[in-house]
Amino acid sequence: MTAFASRAPGHSRRPSAEPWVLRWARWYTRDLDQQVRQDRLDELTSDLWEQRSAARRRGASGVGAAMIGRAARGAPGDLAWRHDELRADPALRGIVRGWTRSGLLAATYLIAAMTLIFAALVWARVLSAAAHHLYLPSATTLTSLGVAVGA
Fold first, then answer.
1. Which parts of the chain span the membrane according to its record (predicted)?
2. Phi, psi dihedral angles at 5 (to 5 degrees)
């Protein structure tokens, strides 16, 4: 049972973010030395407890979403930490080489695809906004201004 299993009276029974964040941590610490893994999980559990406690003192809501967002923003750093830990352990260096060859290429393609999708969405939004504000004069207006229409 974790520190997050019991709730103070009057607090909601909504699913909390802590189990999701800890699942992520257990996943990225797999294959590591057991002591290194446990130290990382203990550190994260403490950080989550402190974040929830501070939010309760302030009366803030949405701490679960903040935890998930923090975990998502920290994911690249978590993976870099994992990579460094694997490189430091001679017995696990093969995992790093295998991950570097296949995973780095896949990550590069994924980031490129996400960037292109994001760029397409931005352009669609810009063009949509421009179409709503674009003023195209009518043929009558152009004729009355003396502009030749057609050749």
1. 103-124
2. -70, -35
Question: How far apart, in whole angstroms, are the C-alpha atoms of residue 108 and residue 93?
Answer: 21
Number of neighbouring beta carbons within 10 Å of residue 40: 19
Which residue carries 């896949």 as its tokens? 106
Q: Where are the domains of the chain?
A: 1-88, 102-145
Whether the pTM exceeds 0.70: the reply is no
Total number of residues shown for the chain: 151
Give, for all 151 residues of the chain, the pLDDT tens digit. 444 444 444 454 556 889 999 999 999 898 888 999 999 999 999 999 999 999 899 988 888 888 988 888 888 888 888 888 887 877 666 655 555 556 666 777 778 888 888 888 888 888 877 776 666 666 666 566 555 545 4
